[in-house]
Amino acid sequence: MASIKNLKKDINYTLGDLIEECYVYQLLNPKADVKASEALIDESIATFDDLIAKLNAKNVENKKAHYKGISLELETKASALVSKINAL
Fold first, then answer.
1. CA geometry: angle at 36 spanning 31 and 41, to 5°?
2. Cβ of 11: how many Cβ atoms within 10 Å?
3. pTM of the predicted structure, to 2 decimals
4. What's the DSSP call for residue 82?
5. pLDDT, tens digit, for every residue of 9-32?
6. What's the burial of 10, exposed, middle or buried (CB within 10 Å: 0-12/13-18/19+)?
7. Does residue 67 carry a pLDDT above 80?
8. To 10 degrees, what angle do helices 35-55 and 4-28 make?
9. CA nearest 40: which of 17, 65, 62?
10. Are 40 and 81 in contact (CB under 8 A)?
11. Confidence check: pLDDT of 48 > 60
12. pLDDT, average across residues 70-79
């Protein structure tokens, strides 16, 4: 099992990169409507808050399964956000 510290870093770096991609899209397409990319940034921040809250939960019976589930949830949500960013 990877450490909690590394899982927090994965969450931070992954979602941070997705937010950065939204900003790059806004810079490269100045005439495009920014509402869609701003909504994706808000969704990324909400996902970050949700995953960190789950990661910091103290009343977990099976910690290994809990952290593995968080890691899988990060992968699925990140891939969904990537597909939305690619659709811009």
1. 115
2. 23
3. 0.88
4. H
5. 999 999 999 999 999 999 999 888
6. middle
7. yes
8. 180
9. 17
10. yes
11. yes
12. 95
